[in-house]
Amino acid sequence: MLLLLTxxxxxxxxxxxxxxxxxxxxxxxxxxxxxxxxSCAQSLYISDLCESHPADIKCCLSATTTTSxxxxxxxxxxxxFPIAGNDGIVYSVVKILKEHLSDPSIYxxxxxxKDNTMTTTTxxxxxxxxxxxxxAGVIITISSGFRTIAxxxxxxxxxxxxxxxxGNLAARPGTSNHGRGIALDLNTNCxxxxxxxxxxxxxxxxxxxxxxxxxxxxxxxxxxEPWHWxxxxxxxxxxxxx
Length: 242
Known about the structure:
globular
């Protein structure tokens, strides 16, 4: 009888997995893995959920695992808004986090009033890139993200009249990649421009982006605008110009 009870107890404990396997984090979702704490990126782990493992094995969470709504990392629990962009196509966007905005005061503005959103896909890629840059001591922020046709019309008028936004180059409404949700204007702080070659030697943000952004799917596409970066996804390569 004692042997039978021992076998039953063994089978019971063998069938029941670690709590980590079914743990659902409120922010990162069901993404736990029982691994050594030294291998857990950003030390995102929870104790006492890997019952069948030694003490140094914890339930490690991944800040970059995509949730069922397509979001990940610091944007995992963001509210998704449907907003029309180029050609009337409706995109799923999220508000850019305050810490990712060059001007945090626009966070509270309606998504259609300011360029304070980006598509869910772009947000996931940007969050990974910004996190990596921060670990290297570089803070990347966004001054302009997704744009509605009305917002692009504003920038187009500024470009045509030179009366606002510094008269910076802007695409005709309906043709900008800001209206497709893949373009972001970043805080490269390169100063005045000279022709097509930017003066960015002293910008730590620009230099980091130039050397690393392609690893996260971003690249430059407008030679005279070192602040303009676009998410093209896997296979991105550094721009052929500096």
